Each structure stands twice: as structure tokens, then as C-alpha cells.
Batch of 2 targets.
Target 1
Amino acid sequence: MIAAIRQRQPGAPLWRIVLWDFIQTLCYLGLVIFYRHRSYGVNNIPRTGPLLLVCNHQSFLDPPIVGAGCIRRQFVALARATLFDNKIAGFILRKLNTVPVTQGEADLGAMRRCIAELKKGQALLIFPEGARTMTGKVQPFETGTMLIIKRAKPMVMPVAIDGAFDIWKRGGKLKLRGRVGVMFGKPIPAEQIIDMGTGRGLAFLRDEVNKLRNDLSGKLDGR
């Protein structure tokens, strides 16, 4: 039983795994109550092994939206370094094994940490657009994503969220009503993406995420 629990976040102390599950449950309840959160493709998520979750970025709500649906795994996530300046937010982010990253420059320390976490068998959530979208559409992916894939060689899972842009878009105010969801695609071996080359590989991943987002948007609109 304990061994199965530890598999959810390899190398992490048991208290951190339990804390992650507790906060995940709170996030799930809040998102269901306020935003009718739905998740699709959960059974596609491998229970073990290095896994890179590649997701579009609409809002500050994106990590909780993905986390609320990712019930088979816990993951390490990246967060803007300035968020750690707030004592309360910084404390919570550190306890959840979040990696601070400096936006607008090549943060090699964060990159090395991401690769190390994947090599430990962790799941890692990244937003390859690098920043929240200004339009709601999926923007081009930055090349750092391919570096992580080449160095760590994880399974790569396209993930899409939708609805968050309408609720809390960049520069806007948080709305307390709406609907959000997350869709998990099928894992792709790293070698398949590496063989495409950087440009084609990133374009392929972006297309996969965009297909999922369009499919998810239809499901949310039709419920």
C-alpha cells in the first residue's frame, strides 16, 4: 500500500505526497463547484515512468485544472519565479515541489531541475508557449521543450485545457462562474518526436495540443 502511494511521486517524502493529494482534492471540489470542471482521457495517463505533460497556457488556473484531472499521477510543475516572492504562495509552491523559472531568459538551472526530476521517474507539467496566451489560441512552442525531451527522453503527453481564458484571461479579473476542463491525449515516445527535428517536432506537439483543445471545447459547449 505504502509502495503504491510512493509511486505517485518518486523520491518525495510521504508527507509531501499526502499534502499534494489533499490540495488536489480541494482544487477539484472548488473547480467543480464554481466552474463545472470536467476531465477526459484520464486513462491515458501512465501510472509510472518519466512523463512530460505538454499543455497550452490560458490562465493562472491552468495548473489546478490539470491537477484536478490528473488523478493517476502527481506532477512537478514550473512556476514564474516572482510568485515565490509572496511568503504564503512561495511556501505552498515549494511544498508542492514546484520549480521556479525566470521568464524572458534561458533559465538553465530550472532546465536542469526539470531534466533531473524526469530522470527520477517523475511526471512534469510544462507550458511550452512560455507565457499565458493573449488571444485564447495556442501559441508557438519554445525550443526549451525539445531540449528537455532530448535530454530526459520521457513519454510525452499532449494535454489541453479550455475555459480558463474566459474565466481569468491575462490582464483580466477572475470570474466566479464559468466552465473549464482538461483533456489528456495519448503518450508519445520521445524518440518519435526527436526524429522529427526541433521545428517539426514542436509544430507536431502544438498541433496535437490544439486538436485536443478543439475537441475539449466542443465537449464543454455541448454539455
Target 2
Amino acid sequence: MNAGLILAGGSSERLIAYDTPKQFIEVGGRMIISYCLRTFEQCPDIDVICVVADKSWRSQIGNYIFADPGDSRQQSIYNGLLALKASSPNCVVVHDAARPCVTVQNISDYIKAADEYDGSTPYLPVTETIYRSFNAKTIAGTLNRDELLIGQTPECYDFEPYLAANEKYVDMLGDFHGSSELAVKSGMKIALAKGNPDNFKITTNADLEKFKSIINGEQG
């Protein structure tokens, strides 16, 4: 059994002129979160879905397992894992609700990529020069972009080891910057899988306008 864990507890501070968290903004007559939820529902490799969301939004989202948002992204993931524990999944697929363009094939591919490992995470290559600066005024050096990757979701993890990793570092969850950082620190072997450039995360107003254009184009 594979479980989908959809993170929808963010406050969207980087979106200007929107009081509604980005994942609940309506595009094409539907909330943004509904696009990835529909994809997870259509994926034959997903058996159960948990949504991390504030109680005030749950009645508008649908009939799912729910968990409370935490003070950090990783704390929200941990809350979702605890909510899924009774379902006894073999694998958990963690995805950001603000990535509405994920495909069924993406989900299935990343689950398959984790077969011989403890998990998998999709990535994109870094194509721009990356500078290091300590004051945002002068360049202190550059980073080797051949050794750098851009992480995406959905990320897949063997459920029990990943839950144990979160419990091991439960007092430090706010210190982790990515879902797989904690897994790797705990000794889990995480495979890299080729990401999908179209599976972008809505973070800024420009991202939101891009998604609106995609949906309007499909409906036009």
C-alpha cells in the first residue's frame, strides 16, 4: 500500500495582494490544491491520501485523512506520517499542494525509482552560475553547479524507516531544509530520479500567472 501525503499548510507570504493561501486560490473554477489531489486519486499506485491543512479549509478540500500543519514543513510531514500510521502504508509519497502540474506518470515513476532504495527524490539540474556572497553586495566565490541539483516533489520514502527518522530528530525538525535531508542524515539511501520541468511550484505571483495561463489555455 502506498500513501500520498499532500502538504497544504503554508501561508503564501511571497504572494502579493492575496489573502488566501496559494494552494486554496481558485484557478479555472477550482482550488489549486484540487489539481494535484485529482492526479493522486487517478494514480493506480496510490491507495490512500492524507492532506496536511488547517481545519478551516478541510470541508472545502474533500474526504481525506487530515493532519494539522506544524511550525515547519518537516513538522507538517511528521504530523501527516502520524495520521497515516494506522493505514500501515509501505511507502509514503510527499508532495507540495502548490505543485499542481504533477502527473500520474511522475508519481508512478518516482515510486518505481525507490524500489531498490529507501526512497527517491526528483531533481532538475542547475543550469545557471551560482555565486556565494556573505553580504549580497560582493562575490565571495562560486559553487560547482555540476555538484548541485534542484529538488522537487513528489518524494517517496519507505514509510517505517522515514517515520523512525522523524521520530529520531523530532526536536530538530525545524532545522531541516528538505524532506530528504532528514532521511539521508538517518542513513536512508535515497535515489535520484529525473524531475519534470513542468512540475513547478507556485511561489510567486509570476508562478501563479503562469499556471493560470496553462489552465486557461487548456480550457480555451
